[in-house]
Amino acid sequence: MVAIEEDGAKQSGWAAELGRAVTRVPDLLARLELEAARIPALPADHAAFPLRVPRGYVARMEKGNPLDPLLRQVLPTEEECAEPPGLSTDPLDERGAQPVPGLLRKYAGRVLLLVTGSCAAHCRFCFRRHFPFRPADPARWNRWFEVVEADASIEEVILSGGDPLLCADDRLRELTDRIRAVGHVRRVRIHTRLPVLLPERVDDGLLAWLRSIRIPTIVVVHANHAREIDGRVRTALRALREAGVTLLNQSVLLHGVNDSVEALRELSTTLADSHVLPYYLHLLDRVKGAAHFEVPEARAVELVDRLAAGLSGYLVPRLARELPGAEGKLLVGRGR
Question: Is the pLDDT of residue 110 over 70?
Fold first, then answer.
């Protein structure tokens, strides 16, 4: 994941908060009152994927707990150096799914635009942690829209990255105005972790942009543990819903984070209380550096079966995995 400067965002409060993000392991451990000698952490400048986490997210972590599920998602550790068989820097072969740079065409009826390579936090399980993102280039948009306009089967455009909400509001509006102008595009989907990591991003400007899209808009947020959803996040999610978007959540099943029935149940019910529908629970994409998060498929199926026994069906996310070249996400277990 490359660090691309957020366009025009310097004037806004959320960007100032992002600028205060913790980027050094010793600083993170000090804030959590953890002894560095007890943590097998990697240096902050490890490879091309250094530590980055907003202070508001750090505040939700439990002090003194080296196994905190939120900390585990962002702390670089020596476990990332393990290289069991089957790992890849591009586990979904996304480099080969780009008819033009920055546009992914993997599934029928939709395209995904890699709007930026930046994120508010560097999640250690990220399947795009090695992706060769390029700096934002308006000329690239023209090539994207040549693809979208030429194919009437494309009904949905997905904004992803990185995190698309790290772009400035005027850039986002320009992009969605162009999407809306393509007559056969019926929906816009936005994949973002910012309402969870940096709820300050959901401000008046962002909400005005969402209302301006004027075609059905789905915002897919990403929370893996119920403790990620505090009062500020709930306020941000409520504001998004009131702006007229459909709210879904996708999670990744992560060892040591949410691989228990109790953690998954609490996540689903907390999401429901925040008017967000659980959508997918992904098996880990086998990206190099993240193997220590992997939960075996049989264990994953067992967890979801037990979860389904105690929750209404609409609160049980579909267990899925992605495979390169597949026509869509593959549902696993009872979801098939």
Answer: yes
**From the CA atom positions of the chain, what is the Rg in Å?**
19
pTM of this structure: 0.93
What are the start-end ranges of the H helices in 127-183? 138-150, 169-180
Q: What is the pLDDT of residue 59?
A: 98
For domain 95-335, the CATH class is: alpha beta
Domain boundaries, the chain: 13-81, 95-335
CA 230 to each of CA 32, 60, 238, 276, 291: distance values in angstroms, whole numbers, following the listed order: 18, 8, 12, 14, 29
DSSP code string of 8-64: T-TTSHHHHHHHT-B--HHHHHHHTT--GGGS-BPPTT-TT----B-HHHHTTSPTT
Bond from prior residue into 162 cis (ω within 30 degrees of 0): yes
Task: Tell me the pairing of strands 103-104 and 110-114.
Answer: antiparallel
What single-letter DSSP state applies at residue 294? -
pLDDT at 46 over 80: no
Nearest one of 139, 137, 150 to 111, comparing CA atoms: 150
Task: Measure the CA–CA gap between 194 and 237, rounded to whole angstroms.
Answer: 11
Which helix (H) or strand (E) element contains residue 204? helix 204-213
